[in-house]
Amino acid sequence: MNSAEEPITDLLDRLAAVVPDYPSPGISFKDLTPVFADAAGLKRIVDEVIAPFAGEYDVIAGLEARGFVLAAAGAYAAGTGMVTLRKKGKLPREVHAEEYLLEYGTATLELHQDDIAPGSRVLILDDVLATGGTVGAAVRLIERAGGVVAGVGVILELDGLGGRSRLAPHRVHTLQRV
Ligand code: AMP
């Protein structure tokens, strides 16, 4: 089959790696790095995760670190800029900070206070949506910085962890539920 015709869920089943008990016992880690490493895989996931939001955003925000891959590629393809939402202590200038709960632990996400032009429509991209804690922090940061969340695009959505409902009423587009 021509790879462009392969259903995206088949492509993800074929290329994504599942690592049991990583980074801690009981967690089934979904590793998308083999999808990023595949020429057709990277293009398909980036094109398909941004497609439903065409014309609805001014800039793409990526969540450290795997979200950076998607956001940079998506922004380049769409002709927009890209904003980095980073883990605590990585950004050099004045930041907004939001703490959140992870599926495994707690963390803080930061955004430069002036990285988003007031009123900009921001598309948020990340690799995996689990509890929605990380993207929820990203939503709060973008709104505190004066942006408007245009939507959330994620490659894999883990069922049963409440991520999608935690992000309501924001539009969430995922390529596969697992
Ligand atoms: P959450 O805040 O619970 O939605 O977790 C989402 C963030 O943690 C994303 O940045 C993911 O990359 C990462 N993550 C959480 N759970 C998993 C998992 N089971 N496999 C891969 N990444 C995960």
Topology:
Elements: H1 8-15, E1 17-20, E2 28-31, H2 33-37, H3 39-50, E3 59-63, H4 66-78, E4 81-87, E5 95-102, E6 105-112, E7 121-129, H5 133-144, E8 148-157, H6 163-167, E9 172-177
Parallel strand pairs: 3-4, 3-7, 7-8, 8-9
Antiparallel strand pairs: 1-2, 4-6, 5-6
The structure holds adenosine monophosphate (AMP).
Adenosine monophosphate (AMP) binds next to β2, β7 and α5.
Short description:
This protein is an alpha/beta fold and 178 residues long. It has helices at residues 8-15, 33-37, 39-50, 66-78, 133-144, 163-167, and strands at residues 17-20, 28-31, 59-63, 81-87, 95-102, 105-112, 121-129, 148-157, 172-177. Helices cover 31% and strands 34% of the residues.
Describe the structure.
- The protein is an alpha/beta fold.
- It has one domain (42-177): Rossmann fold (3-Layer(aba) Sandwich).
- It has six helices and nine strands, in the order αββααβαββββαβαβ.
- It has helices spanning 8-15, 33-37, 39-50, 66-78, 133-144, 163-167; strands spanning 17-20, 28-31, 59-63, 81-87, 95-102, 105-112, 121-129, 148-157, 172-177.
- It has a seven-stranded mixed sheet, sandwiched between helices.
- Helix 3 (39-50) crosses helix 4.
- The longest helix is centred in the middle third of the chain and has 13 residues, at 66-78.
- 37% of the residues are buried.
- The structure holds adenosine monophosphate.
- Adenosine monophosphate binds at residues 27-30, 63, 66, 102-103, 126-134, 158, 163.
- Adenosine monophosphate (AMP) binds next to strand 2, strand 7 and helix 5.
